[in-house]
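Q: My hope is that you can spare some time for a protein that puzzles me. Underneath my words sits a plain record pairing an amino acid chain with its backbone structure tokens. Those tokens are not coordinates but codes from a learned vocabulary of shapes. Thank you; the sequence and its tokens follow:
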Amino acid sequence: MSEQEQAEIRLEYSRLKQEHADFDAAINAMIATGCDPLQIQRMKKKKLLLKDRLMALEDRIIPDIIA
């Protein structure tokens, strides 16, 4: 993988990491204000999808070395 590709992956990872943190803050605010539980559940699902994408990017950045 070229340095350019790694830089792009790291940039995407950083963006998704921030988006994940934003979802976390939004969910906590929704819980604190007593929002509709269905909306909260949908936000949590989106947050989980982001986490899955983060893990996939992390796997591309860090090679899987079997010792």
Notes: The chain has two helices and no strands. The helical segments are 3-33, 37-61.
